[in-house]
Write a structure and sequence with these properties.
With 334 residues, the protein is α/β, with parallel strands linked by helices. It contains 9 helices and 13 strands. α2 packs across α3, α4 crosses α5 and α7 packs across α8.
Length: 334
């Protein structure tokens, strides 16, 4: 019996190996979609029983957007459609749709296949990433690995958050800063050296109690502890990623951090002694949009004419879990 089995195995055709040569990755375009409903500090102050100045001073946020009936999948699809149009891509060119979100419309199905269907990305696989505010950067890491190993050529990566239905309207810690929004990016293959570097990432569940949403899905946060942990994680991973890339903080052209809270951003800037003109701040008019915040911030910088080919941009994020990640990209659009 054993000899017969071996003979059958030898008779089978050999598997065709995939090409092993690695290749590089480029983030070619970003775009975002914000809901129409705007909630100002004045309106929110009446709701919370505080004045608008109190909110602005503690968050550096002036207004935030609420989906107001727009679904998570609809918001993600709108951002995906925008980035495809900006990149000049047909949806059928996409090999994979990845959606980073913690606020799906339903437990099942995932959001990504709904987005792929509505965009008519008929050649694409699709899946969600559930990694809090770090989700988009974790997706960039995972997608880059798939492209480098030649398992995909072009990936649509979307971060989306519709958290407004899950906020306690009386919670002064969360409501002033949290908001809805979607941001998308296209990553593609380039031959030779790539423009997305290794991602430094980590997790420590000893901080899991700081940001939670239980069975009721209501979002809750321990403010002061979260504030300190976020600053430490962003500062430490920024230093680590530039060291891994063989450069210094001074060699980075722009810093694009998760837009968690304006005061967190300012503390990171001071801790790393960064020139303010090198830091992208987009939180003032959009709030904390979770996994959408980095592509939304990049889009704002692009609209202001601050993104130039060849620039080194450090991306850094931190989220519930606690999770964190940073990477360095070289911007080459189009």
């Amino acid at each position: 019996m054993g000899d017969t089995g071996n003979a059958a195995a030898l008779a089978r055709p050999a598997l065709r190996p995939r090409p092993r040569e690695r290749r590089g990755v480029r983030l070619v375009e970003v775009a975002g979609q914000l809901p129409d409903k705007v909630l100002t500090n004045e309106e929110l102050g009446e709701q919370l029983g505080v004045d608008a100045h109190w909110i602005q001073k503690r968050t550096l946020v002036d207004e935030r957007r609420y989906a107001d009936g727009m679904t998570n999948a609809e918001l993600a699809t709108a951002a995906g459609r925008k980035v495809l149009e900006k990149a000049g891509l047909d949806p059928k060119d996409i090999d994979l749709v990845v959606v980073a979100t913690d606020t799906p419309d339903d437990y099942l199905p995932p959001t990504a296949p709904l987005v792929a269907r509505d965009l008519e990305a008929t050649n694409a696989g699709a899946f969600d990433i559930h990694a809090a505010c770090t989700g988009w950067l974790y997706g960039l890491d995972m997608g880059s690995g798939l492209i480098e190993s030649r398992r995909a050529d072009t990936i649509l990566l979307i971060g989306c958050q519709v958290i407004s239905p899950y906020l306690d309207p009386t919670d002064r810690m969360t409501v002033p800063v949290m908001a809805d929004g979607a941001g998308a990016g296209i990553i593609t293959a380039v031959e030779g050296d790539g423009y997305v570097q290794t991602v430094v990432r980590g997790a420590d569940a000893s901080y899991a109690h700081l940001v939670r949403a239980g069975k009721d899905r209501i979002f809750r946060m321990e403010g002061m502890e979260t504030f300190k942990q976020a600053i430490d994680a962003l500062v430490d991973t920024s230093r680590e990623v530039v060291d891994m890339c063989g450069i210094t903080i001074e060699d980075v052209d722009l810093f694009c951090y998760h837009q968690a809270n304006g005061r967190i951003l300012r503390r990171v800037v001071r801790s790393l002694d960064l020139p303010q003109e090198k830091v992208i701040e987009a939180i003032r008019l959009v709030g904390n949009t979770g996994p959408a915040s980095i592509p939304l911030a990049l889009e704002r910088a692009q609209g202001e004419g601050r993104l130039e080919d060849g620039q080194r941009i450090l991306l850094g994020t931190v989220g519930a879990g606690a999770l964190w990640a940073s990477t360095l990209i070289e911007w080459h659009a189009g």
